[in-house]
Amino acid sequence: MLTLAFLLAIVAAVSACRLDMHVQPRLNPLAQSDFFSDQRGARPLVDGTVARGQLHADTYFYTGRVDGSPGNYMPFPVTKEVLERGRERYNIYCSPCHSLLGDGNGFIPSRGFSKRPPSYHIERLQKAPLGYFYDVITNGFGTMPDYASQIPPRDRWDIVAYIRALQLSQNATKADVPSGQVVPSEPPRFRGQPGSGATLPLIDSETAAQTELQKEEKK
User: Fold this and answer.
1) Which whole number is the average pLDDT over 112-127?
2) Cα 67 off chain centre by
3) Is the Cβ–Cβ distance between 134 and 156 less than 8 Å?
4) Is residue 151 part of a domain?
5) E-assigned strand segments in 36-169
């Protein structure tokens, strides 16, 4: 009889502990609380609180601004990889409106969107600082929404670098071409037929290399 009573006491103790863990003194999110004078269960963040991964110590990298005005330099070196990444992201997010050339004749305006974006090649945007483009991507401008949630800061800068490359490609002069490079460039030479809509062309890289070598010898 004593053993049975002892077992019942253990079961009761364990059950009570389990019940206490399930029914805890807590508040549901945004529920009212009588503990605080403003009766808000959800408390405001302490001043200076920074979420993990959101320190953003490099202000220019995350805003594109210096002393409140758009800066005009890249926060990291521009390499071929940067431009390739920028072209990829630009073609995905920007070209539907701005077009692959950046002239504002993208797919969406061509289908009746009333507010056609300006061309990147107008004088105002050719002279615009790099931080201006970053700021517009981050915060939007006019009818253009912001892309802060879709495009990470690094990719935004890659796009900015590619936009500047687009501007140079459409407005370059012979003085901008490196010495020794032919303008316009020689057309590619193909092996056999240049291809059709179902097949890709095969570029004869050996012939092209020989042509370049002959040009160097003539010099």
Assistant:
1) 93
2) 23
3) yes
4) yes
5) 65-66, 69-70
pLDDT at 165: 95
Compute the mean pLDDT over every residue in the chain, rounded to the nearest whole number.
85
Provide the total of helices (H) and of strands (E) in the chain, helices listed first.
9, 2
Produce one character per residue of 106-122: b if its CB has 16 or more CB atoms within 10 Å, e if not.
beebeeeeeeebebbbe
The better pLDDT of the pair 125, 195 is held by 125
CATH number at residue 68: 1.10.760.10
Contacts of 158 (CB under 8 A, 6+ apart): 82, 83, 85, 86, 89
> Which of 136, 118, 146, 117 lies closest to 70, judged by CA?
136
The percentage of the chain sitting over the pLDDT mark of 90, rounded to a whole number, equals: 49
Q: What distance in Å separates the CA atoms of residue 64 and residue 75, rounded to the nearest whole number?
A: 9
Tell me the C-alpha distance between 17 and 20, whole Å: 5
CA distance 49 to 141: 29
Look up the pTM and report it.
0.66
Which residue segment(s) compose the domain that 115 sits in? 59-172
- pLDDT for the residue 112: 86
Residue 167 has pLDDT above 90, yes or no: yes
